[in-house]
Amino acid sequence: MKQPSLPLCSLFLIFIIPLIMLPFGSDASERLVEDLFNYIDAHQDDFVQNLKNWVAVPSDSSDPQFRGEVIRMMEMTAKRIETLGASVQIVDMGFETLYDGRKVKFPPAILAELGNDTTKATVCFYGHVDVQPAKKEDGWKSDPFTLTELNGNLYGRGATDNKGPVLAWIHAIDTYIAMKQDIPVNLKFIIEGVEETGSPGLEELIKGQEQFFSDVDYIVISDNVWLSRKPALTYGTRGNAYFFVEVESGKKDLHSGTFGGIIHESMRDLVYLLASLVDTSGRILIPGIYDDVAPVTEEEHKLYENIDFDMEEHKNNTEVNTFLYNNKEEILQHLWRYPSLSIHGIEGAFSGTGSKTVIPSKVIGKFSIRQAPNMQIPVVEKLVKNYLEDVFAKLNSPNKLKVSLEIGAMPWVANVDDPQYEAAKISIRKVFGVTPDMVREGSTIPLARTFQDLTKKRIMMLPIGGADDGEHSQNEKISRSNYIQGTKVFASFFLDLAKLHEDLLEKSDAKKVKMSQIIES
Ligand code: MN
Ligand code: MN
After folding, report:
1. CA distances (Å), 291 to each of 64, 265, 286, 415, in order?
2. Which of 174, 195, 196, 469 is catalytic?
3. What b-and-e string marks burial along 373-404, b requiring 16 or more CB atoms within 10 Å of the CB?
4. Using CA atoms, how far apart are residues 76 and 70, in angstroms rounded to an integer?
5. Active-site pick, 60, 69, 130, 496
6. Of 135, 189, 307, 381, which has the maximum CB count within 10 A?
7. Residues 198-239 pLDDT 10s
């Protein structure tokens, strides 16, 4: 039998072996990624222990009784970020006036900077280290402030919202420092301690920090969760416009036996008004309400195709028989990118058990319209008021009507062509081996929009938490896997973003132009 000829062997050595080696990485940056990931794996118990130390601080920002703990948490965080070699600024946020007139100090905010190499991209990370309230007796299986590992999950208040992700970002930086590697991007931090109470003072803080944000190219928020078991990047959130509609017939409640049949009842008027807002197919009946809603583009259309979303599972979790739509695409679009109107309740109406024969004098209907891009709150407010006044006029009722907008939060949507989305996709593919779903949030997270409006920078929401983490709920958790793999995503993201940033700079002639200006053009 003839032996394989030497040239064939060398062909194998020269061409085939490098081809086999390629996916495992042969250049320096791929070896670096591997080393970074190995380091993170090797130190995962330390990272879990750090989370345990943070979760142990009951930094509940909603209850003034815990204000000292929130302040302590902010101090711990500031010290931790200082250990990275960052310059840390602790910003006083003033005083909060409580309902009883007492004044308590707001927890300070943290601004920090690490690195100021003008040839590198600058990434600002937003996070918060305050938490929702939690009590064991609310139905927690373990003490909410003792991080408890069970079946691969790390249970504790703040584990996923938002202490885990903040620490994962810090640990990603730790990893470069421990391995004596150059961090490929400049890093900035903005960390707050009152996110769970609506971030009072954050807008003023951002407005007052023009200098701090001036050289920021990208803002990353990691404060939400995936849609399914598949990693996701979030590029939009809906806003909300919350209305009160008040109908008043007189000053006091009356008896239906003595007055029923001879008066104009406020409840009848209100129920008629509420019923005129939306039809049974979910369509909002207010003329003009859909006029500003952004049309679905071809690109956006394509994004829905691959999204991992199990309609049946969602239906089971919701415990309803049927949805208004029977396909994934329409369901996601109506959750994410179309407005919806929900009726929440009636204040002043009899709502107890039993059969009380009261005729309420003043009733206030509460409803809200989730806002989609590019709806404008003042426009919506006007349309709603005009419509309800028109409907009411046709009732010929002598009662008094008052419609008011109580909350107006704007929707947010990012341009997904932003290099940071591309970089995050690369990082996620390296860690999880899948391309992340591009998703939006149907609910309202005003932060991204606030940052976008005030800083004019590109924003990305890069969640690492799982869909079943139960933020705000009993038994909040982050899985050990998501926590550690998320740390790897962040570590890789610094490299992947730096690479794309460099490529973009190379393509443009003006090397000194900041990325924000390039992607704007
Ligand atoms: Mn949060
Ligand atoms: Mn939260």
Report:
1. 44, 35, 11, 21
2. 195
3. bebebeebbebbbebbeebbeeeebebebebe
4. 10
5. 130
6. 189
7. 999 999 999 999 999 999 999 999 999 999 999 999 999 999
Same fold, 25-237+411-506 and 240-294+337-409: no
Q: How far is the CA of 163 from the centre of ligand 1 (A)?
A: 9
pLDDT tens for residues 62-104?
Answer: 999 999 999 999 999 999 999 999 999 999 999 999 989 999 9
Question: Pseudo-torsion of CA 55, 59, 60, 66, nearest 10°?
Answer: 130
195 is catalytic: yes
pLDDT band at 5 (very low <50, low <70, confident <90, very high): very low
Q: Kindly give the distance from the C-alpha atom of residue 153 to the centroid of ligand 1, in angstroms, as a whole number.
A: 19
335/345 Cα distance (integer angstroms) = 21
Dist. CA 475 → ligand 2 center (Å):
14
Cβ proximity of 477 and 52 under 8 Å: no
Note the ligand closest to the C-alpha atom of 197: 2
Q: Which fold has domain 240-294+337-409?
A: Alpha-Beta Plaits (3.30.70)
Residue 162: nearest ligand to its CA? 1
Whole-number Cα distances in Å, 517 to 3, 214, 451, 494, 504: 63, 11, 17, 20, 11
Report the separation in Å between the CA atom of 207 and the middle of ligand 1, taken as the mean of its atom positions: 21
> Using one digit for the tens of pLDDT, what is the confidence trace for 20-68?
444 444 588 899 999 999 999 999 999 999 999 999 999 999 999 999 9
What whole-number distance in Å separates Cα of residue 491 and Cα of residue 489? Answer: 6
Selected residue with higher pLDDT from 491 and 513: 491
| Domain residue spans of the chain | 25-237+411-506, 240-294+337-409
| pLDDT tens per residue, range 122-155 | 999 999 999 999 999 999 999 999 999 999 999 9
Could you give the CA distance from residue 17 to residue 13 in angstroms, rounded to a whole number?
5
Please tell me the predicted confidence (pLDDT) of residue 62.
94
CATH no. for 25-237+411-506: 3.40.630.10
Q: What is this structure's pTM?
A: 0.89
DSSP string, 382-447: HHHHHHHHHHHHHTT--SEEEEEEEEEE--EE--TTSHHHHHHHHHHHHHHSSPPEEEEESS--HH
- How far, in Å, from the CA of 310 to the mean position of ligand 1? 25
